[in-house]
Design goal:
This protein is mainly alpha-helical. It has four helices and two strands; from the N terminus they run αββααα.
């Protein structure tokens, strides 16, 4: 069950998109998409935003940007906490199962 909950949070839970938008000029600060997205890893309905969060996670230097975008509203924060909790629960359950099988 924990694995299914983690999968839901990563690919289906409603969250903010957070994909970087194109800059208007060279001195403009980077803007991020605020549309609703599906899951922590997915993007909104704009084709270029579909896997933008996965690209943010691929480069270690942009992890902070990803976390800032996800925690900018309550939905993203709830999905992040839910994904972390369900993943932790799945790892603990798997460890307990392996420990009991080795006895």
């Amino acid at each position: 069950m924990s694995g299914l909950a983690a999968a839901y949070m990563l690919v289906q839970a409603p969250t903010p998109c957070g994909a970087p938008k194109r800059k208007a000029s060279t001195n403009a600060e980077q803007l991020y998409c605020r549309k609703n997205a599906k899951g922590l890893l997915g993007g909104c309905d704009i084709v270029q935003h579909k896997w933008a969060n996965v690209r943010l996670l691929a480069a270690r230097s942009t992890w902070g940007v990803f976390l800032r975008n996800m925690t900018s509203d309550g939905k993203g924060m709830a999905a992040g906490v839910g994904a972390l909790a369900s993943t932790s629960s799945a790892v603990i359950a798997l460890g307990t199962l392996l420990f009991n099988l080795s006895r």
